[in-house]
Structures are given as structure tokens and as C-alpha cells.
């Protein structure tokens, strides 16, 4: 049995702690915040409950597998499959209620957008399924390794299916002749914090997975996943310590041998697993001599986009029209130019962004009937006072929030008469809460054909130190983070 210290109690840290404890290791889980969950955040005020991170779960079997592997299902964690995955409003005013089941999608597309649109999307998803079949086992479910990538590269048919030299936007243009379908596809690049014009065609698997496995909501909010995993961890003997910020990962003879806390306390360990952002680990928690090549790769990668969110406490709105709504921008390319910047202009808040609205019809998240706890999110440039946007600039957040409320109304969702109060969550707030540089939601983006190879591996160059979570392999989002935990626990168990 090894002594394991896990740094960070986001979903990745919680999941890997649970798996390692079930393997028989002695695990201490450290979290700098007062609550566990990381980016799976929850805000409670006046009886309103907001998920401030993910608002839906896909591939729920991965969560079921984690619980089954470590003691059995949690009867208090109740999942609900959404009949309508999302309601979309396109720039021309067209509406689309996207069904939550794959078999129902073609007919819905034909009815909303015109005959033949369902077949276009189906043809695209057939290609996406090919990519999924090729990449799932050797890449998403396995530790990343040079040997594995070489083996994959030798299968010419598989390489042709994945088309690593083609962008997601370009792949979509081959199948989707309706510009609204191409806009719909572009949205899925943002699931990895990326620009569809630069993200690889492999991200076609994102809409395939969402529609093949369904969109799921956790009754009471997705924050209950973190609560459930904490309870499971503690039942297995994990010592969970919130309010403990790690200052450094200590080493001896080139091997990780523990951590030092901000108060100077040192905790010895045989293994350290970091669920912190990979950039923070390599740049701040390790000495300069450790992980130099990994730091260099991170410097070549494009940070993922961030987000600006409104938490809206509403009265008198009644049941929401759909759990998830997306109100598309008139010019999606201008949005991505604003978020990532161009040669002519640096990153800047987008004047007319796409609006993502999550509003659960769940009495557990509101204080009374007719009230609404709405989470409104827009893509935003990361917090970068030196070379981009300073989200702490006085007045900026309030002015931008007012602009977004006006834009909601302009696109047919005027909640201003029902507004009880509004809170904002900026990229700077996200950086402070999660210690993620710039508030980049997914660490590095998938921009560029080589982006997947720049994402840090779970096994670091420092013996005894491992990474887990959205900024490491295989990537961000709840399903991939759960896979990351499974991969990392396997690596630790085999070490």
C-alpha cells in the first residue's frame, strides 16, 4: 500500500482518490477551496442553486462504472435523461428542438430546417462514428504514448478516417450544406475551449457522443456528483482536507516525495497525483529543473477559451422552455476572433456572442414555484491583464452583464422584468477560484493539428508524480475527466 497525496478535489481528483482508495492505497485529498468540486462549482443564495460549471452529463455509464468499481451505486444520485437535449435559435430566427435520442434527430432536423437536413447530419455522424471507433480505445481510454501513436499512424485506413490534417470546420463543409448545420457543428468545438476553424476533425466525436449516449441531468444539480464522490471517498478512508493550498511538490533524488503546503507543513508521500491545472503544476509547483520539456510543450499550445457567466435569480417565469438553450451569434467567426484574437486585434469581449442558457425544471434548485435559477454563459477571452483582457477592470463585468441581458431580450428571451438579482462570474473569478491560469476552462485548447500531442500526459517526467483532470490527457469535460481518473489510477497501480 502506497501513501498517495492528491492535489485538487475537482471531479478528476475525487474520482482518482476514490479509485486509489478502493485499490488499498492510503489517500489524502487536498483542496485549496473550502468546498470540493473544482470547476463543477455550485452557488447557493436565497434558496437558489446554480451549477456554475457543467450543466449536463454525457456518457453516464462512466460515472456508473466508477461507482460500481468502488462499492456500488449511489441511490441518492438520480439521473434524468433529457427528452430535448437543447433548443437552438439560429441567427435567422429559426428554432430547432434537438431531440435527446439519436433516432429522433433526422426527423426533427427535417421539420425545423427543411427536407434533407436530417440526412446531411446523419451522413456526418456516420463519419463521426468512424472517428469514435478508431480513437476511443487506443487514445481516449488509454495512456498516451509515443508507441501507441506510432501504431495508430500505421493504420492508413484509420488515419484517413480521423483526418488529422483537416479542421472540424472543413470536415463539416464536406457533409453539411445548410449553413445552420455548420453553425451547429461549430458549437461543439467550444466543448474543448477551441476554435472550429483550427480544431481537428476528431472533435466530430463530440456531437456523436452527445447524441448517441444522450444528455443527462442530475436531480438537484450536477454539483451532487462532487458530493457523492466525496462521500464515497470518505467511506473508503480518504482523508479530505479542504482549505489546504499546496505550495510545491517536493522531490528527492529526482522523484516526487510529497507536497509542501502554504503554511509550511510538509506531507510526505510515495505518489503525488495533481488534479491542478497542468500549466500551474509545471510552472509553479515543480522546481525549474523538473519537467522542462513538458513546460516547453505547454508554451507552444494555445490556452483554451474561458467563459463569462450570469447567475440570474428570477421570479414569475414558470417552467423553462427547455433545460438548455443556445441563441447563436449573427457572426460566429467574429466571436472566435474576439475570444482568441487575430493578428490585427487582440482578444476582447465579444459584443454579440452566442448565449448558452441552462435552466433546470427542478424544484430542488429554486426556493418557490415559478422561480428560476438561470445560468447564462458566453465564450470569453481568458483573463490576461498584461496582453489581453483585464476582467478586473472596474465596471467591465457589470457593463458586460447589462449588455448580455439586453441581447437575451433582443433574441426573444427577456428576463429583465423577472430579475430578482444577478451575479457575474468572470474569467478572473474562475482563475481565483480554481487556480487555473487565465480562467482557461480546459487548460489548453484543441487548436491545431498537433494540439492533442501538446496536452500533458498523465505520467509526468518526474517519477512518482501523475496528472489527472481536464488539462491533462485525454482532455476536458466530465466524461474525459472520468476517463483520465481511470487511466491515472491504473498507472499508479502498475507503478
From TrEMBL:
Gene3D superfamilies for this protein: FAD/NAD(P)-binding domain
Keywords attached to this entry: Carotenoid biosynthesis, Oxidoreductase
Keyword presence, Manganese: no
Amine oxidase domain mapped to chain residues: 12-313
Pathways involved: Carotenoid biosynthesis
The keyword Oxidoreductase is assigned to this record: yes
Protein origin, superkingdom: Bacteria
NCBIfam families cross-referenced by the UniProt entry: crtI_fam
UniProt similarity note: Belongs to the carotenoid/retinoid oxidoreductase family.
Protein name: Phytoene desaturase family protein
Gene: crtI_2
Amino acid at each position: 500500500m502506497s501513501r498517495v497525496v492528491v492535489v485538487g478535489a475537482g471531479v478528476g481528483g475525487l474520482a482518482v482518490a476514490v479509485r486509489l482508495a478502493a485499490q488499498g492505497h492510503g489517500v489524502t485529498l487536498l483542496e485549496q477551496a473550502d468546498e470540493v468540486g473544482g470547476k463543477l462549482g455550485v452557488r447557493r443564495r436565497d434558496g437558489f442553486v446554480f451549477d456554475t460549471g457543467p450543466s449536463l452529463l454525457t456518457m453516464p455509464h462512466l460515472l456508473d462504472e466508477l461507482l460500481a468499481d468502488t462499492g456500488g451505486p449511489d441511490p441518492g444520485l438520480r439521473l434524468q435523461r433529457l427528452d430535448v437535449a437543447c433548443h437552438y435559435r439560429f441567427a435567422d430566427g429559426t428554432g430547432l428542438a434537438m431531440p435527446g435520442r439519436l433516432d429522433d434527430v433526422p426527423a426533427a432536423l427535417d421539420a425545423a430546417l427543411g427536407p434533407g437536413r436530417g440526412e446531411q447530419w446523419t451522413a456526418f455522424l456516420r463519419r463521426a462514428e468512424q472517428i469514435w471507433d478508431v480513437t476511443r480505445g487506443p487514445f481516449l481510454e488509454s495512456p498516451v504514448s509515443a508507441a501507441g501513436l506510432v501504431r495508430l499512424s500505421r493504420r492508413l485506413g484509420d488515419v484517413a478516417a480521423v483526418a488529422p490534417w483537416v479542421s472540424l470546420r472543413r470536415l463539416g463543409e464536406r457533409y453539411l450544406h445548410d449553413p445552420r448545420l455548420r453553425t451547429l457543428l461549430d458549437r461543439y468545438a467550444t466543448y474543448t475551449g477551441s476554435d472550429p476553424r483550427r480544431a481537428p476533425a476528431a472533435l466530430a466525436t463530440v456531437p456523436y457522443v452527445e447524441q448517441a449516449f444522450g444528455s443527462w441531468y442530475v436531480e438537484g444539480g450536477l454539483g451532487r456528483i462532487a458530493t457523492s464522490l466525496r462521500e464515497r471517498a470518505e467511506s473508503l478512508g480518504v482523508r479530505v482536507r479542504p482549505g489546504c493550498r499546496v505550495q510545491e511538490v517536493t522531490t528527492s533524488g529526482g522523484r516526487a516525495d510529497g507536497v509542501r503546503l502554504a503554511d509550511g507543513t510538509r506531507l510526505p508521500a510515495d505518489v503525488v497525483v495533481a488534479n491542478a491545472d497542468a500549466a500551474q503544476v509545471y510552472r509553479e509547483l515543480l522546481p525549474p529543473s523538473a519537467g522542462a520539456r513538458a513546460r516547453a510543450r505547454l508554451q507552444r499550445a494555445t490556452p483554451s477559451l474561458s467563459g463569462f457567466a450570469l447567475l440570474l435569480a428570477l421570479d414569475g417565469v414558470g417552467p423553462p422552455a427547455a433545460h438548455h438553450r443556445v441563441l447563436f451569434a449573427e457572426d460566429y467567426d467574429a466571436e472566435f476572433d474576439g475570444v482568441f484574437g487575430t493578428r490585427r486585434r487582440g482578444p476582447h469581449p465579444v459584443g454579440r456572442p452566442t448565449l448558452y442558457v441552462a435552466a433546470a425544471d427542478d424544484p430542488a434548485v429554486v426556493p418557490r414555484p415559478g422561480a428560476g435559477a438561470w445560468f447564462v454563459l458566453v465564450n470569453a477571452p481568458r483573463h490576461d491583464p498584461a496582453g489581453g483582457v483585464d476582467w478586473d477592470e472596474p465596471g467591465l463585468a457589470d457593463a458586460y452583464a447589462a449588455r448580455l441581458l439586453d441581447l437575451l431580450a433582443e433574441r426573444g428571451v427577456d428576463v429583465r422584468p423577472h430579475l430578482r438579482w444577478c451575479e457575474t462570474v468572470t474569467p478572473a473569478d474562475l482563475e481565483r477560484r480554481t487556480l487555473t491560469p487565465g480562467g482557461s476552462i480546459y487548460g489548453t485548447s484543441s487548436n491545431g493539428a498537433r494540439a492533442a500531442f501538446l496536452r500533458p500526459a498523465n505520467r509526468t517526467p518526474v517519477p512518482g508524480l501523475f496528472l489527472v483532470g481536464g488539462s491533462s490527457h485525454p482532455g476536458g469535460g466530465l466524461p474525459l475527466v472520468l476517463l483520465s481518473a481511470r487511466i491515472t489510477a491504473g498507472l499508479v497501480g502498475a507503478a
